[in-house]
Amino acid sequence: MRQPASAPRANEALDRLAIDTIRTLAMDAVENARSGHPGTPMALAPVGYTLWARFLRIDPDVPDWPNRDRFVLSVGHASMLLYALIHLSGLKEIDADERSSGRPAVSLDDIKSFRQLGSKTPGHPEYRLTTGVETTTGPLGQGCGNSVGMAIAERWLAGHFNRDGFTLFDHDIYALCGDGDMMEGVSGEAASLAGHLKLANLCWIYDSNRISIEGHTDLAFTEDVAKRFDAYGWSVLRVDDANDIEAFARSLDTFAETTDKPTLIIVRSVIGWGSPKADSEKAHGEPLGADAIAATKKAYGWPEDARFRVPDGVAEHLNQAVASRGRPLREQWEADFARYRQSHHALAAELDAMRRGGLPPGWNDGLPTFDRDPKGLASRDSGGKALNALAARIPWLIGGAADLSPSTKTDLTNHGSFQANNPSGRTMHFGVREHAMGAIANGMALSYLRPFTATFLVFADYMRAPVRLAAIMELPVIFVFTHDSIGVGEDGPTHQPIEHLATLRSIPGLDTIRPADANEAVEAWKLAVTQTHVPTALILSRQSLPTLDRDKYAAAAGVAKGAYVLVGVDDPELILIGTGSEVQLVAEAYEKLTEQGVRARVVSMPSWYRFEQQDQDYRDSVLIPGVEARLAVEQGGAIGWDRYVGARGRTITMSTFGASAPLSKLQEKFGFTVGHVVAAARAMVGREI
Question: Is 257 one of the catalytic residues?
Answer without folding.
Answer: no
